[in-house]
Amino acid sequence: MSVHYTLNLRVFWPLVTGLCTALVCLYHVLWGSWGARAEPPDGVDGGFPLLKVAVLLLLSYILLRCRHAVRQRFLPGSPRLGGDAAFSSRHFREPGLSILLESYYEHEVRLSPHVLGHSKAHVSRIVGELVRAGRSRGSPGLIPGGALALAFRGDFIQVGSAYEQHKIRRPDSFDVLVPLRLPPLVALDPRSLGEEIALAPAFRSCFVCALKAPPSPSGASGGHWLRDCKPFADGFCVDVRGRRHLSAALVLRWFQSHLQRSLATVRYSLEGRCRVTLTPGGLEQPPTLHILPCRTDYGCCRLSMAVRLIPAVHLGDGVFLVAPPPPPLSSGLLLELPGGLRSEALWGVNTARQEQKLLSWLQERAAPGACYLKCLQLLKALRDLGARGLDSAAATQWGCILSSYVLKTVLLAVLLRKGAPGQSWDEEHLGKCLEELVQFLRDCLLRRHTLFHCVLGPGGAAAEVGPLPKVLREAAPVDLLAAFDGHARELAAARLLSTWQRLPQLLRAYGGPRYLARCPPPRSQRTQGFLEGEP
């Protein structure tokens, strides 16, 4: 993907004005020191050319800012329609909204490719040293029989929006998979829980992994294998329905302690470049590596970054099981699992490699100048605007329902229905393309469409992403919104519609230079709650 650099006028004009002002001040100092020795003769103009240039630049800057403010002030407003009529193309004033979206994208959403590139390179160096240290340390003293312990495979896999070209705002958070190496005597027998009808919908995207003996030409008996791998099973497995299953909770606990020991090994060598701390996530979240710039770091991108380090077990073909699985997000879910299942034995699945291949496949077939990734970034920004004015509990649920992964799946679902981004996804149709994504998302929330996982199951995009493990091809389709009850989905759909109807006002209020933005309406004019009220 080609990278385009654009001039940031918010920084350029104040910088030029400040530089010229400094030159004028220097000129005044030099002129005052020379004034007594070199008085200009009568009739000769002793003007201040630098002062005139500075005044002209300042006037140009003010005119440009005033033009921006006038253009935003007199753009057409948003449609005041309710229900599905709000998405009707007859009432959609695309030119005005497109200008606002472009301005908001440049000022608030778009990431600097330079800063993002530096951040990713910095994360890659730090995580690389940490993983190499973890691989060399092994697992001393954890369980009897070091050959039967887990270990770092030695590499890491960068996943998430920062590596798929649709991250927004700041490059300060990253996700990294750390693959683990199983002992040679241990193999996994993964199984999807999608067919478990008695299981809550939030858990049907999870997997369980029973232990099994690897294929052996010697034909060793099962009894000998169970005896040989008993140290590993005692340290990392739990009993589920009479079989030993790899425990995500026990693996995560080992992973966090092993990272702490590895970090102590490399901390001294990193002191000259950054300060690094590790925050354990317990049994519900993976650990987070915090990278803080040093006081002596004079680099151009001095950002504090948080890197989630996710333990992963490779299933094959670039698919990984990750610990812990996504937590149950709906407030009414039962935490007790039926049928003898244990929550600590549940694993999530990560198909980031396949999703990256799918995005690359779409990019190869897209028309030049297609703006589908830009639309995804703006859809995330619209979600963030919709969270304004909500209390913490409502904002958390809003963010869970409209997670970044759900929004990316919405984009992939809309694009795959058409085969490839065509001319209708050109930059000049930016507003209309965003409208199509919002409408499809609202239909999914209202159960008019089902938002399936784009890779799992027989209906996934297997033909476009290449081969998949058999357990994924045979898995039941996963509805990403099934974990949320109907009431929460209806509230989210209403909030989404309200945010879309007020999008021009929100873009004017929260976009562009802060000192030119119009103030939002008084709080008394905003009704409260998740459904009502303005974001």
TrEMBL record:
Residues 372-452 form the Mab-21-like HhH/H2TH-like domain. Pfam families: Mab-21_C. The keyword Signal applies. It is a single-pass type I membrane protein. It comes from the Eukaryota. It is found in: Membrane. InterPro entries: ITPRIP-like, Mab-21_HhH/H2TH-like, MAB21L/cGLR. Its main location: membrane. Keywords: Membrane, Signal, Transmembrane, Transmembrane helix. The keyword Transmembrane applies. The chain crosses the membrane at residues 12-34, 46-64. Belongs to the ITPRIP family. This is Inositol 1,4,5-trisphosphate receptor-interacting protein-like 2. It comes from Saguinus oedipus.
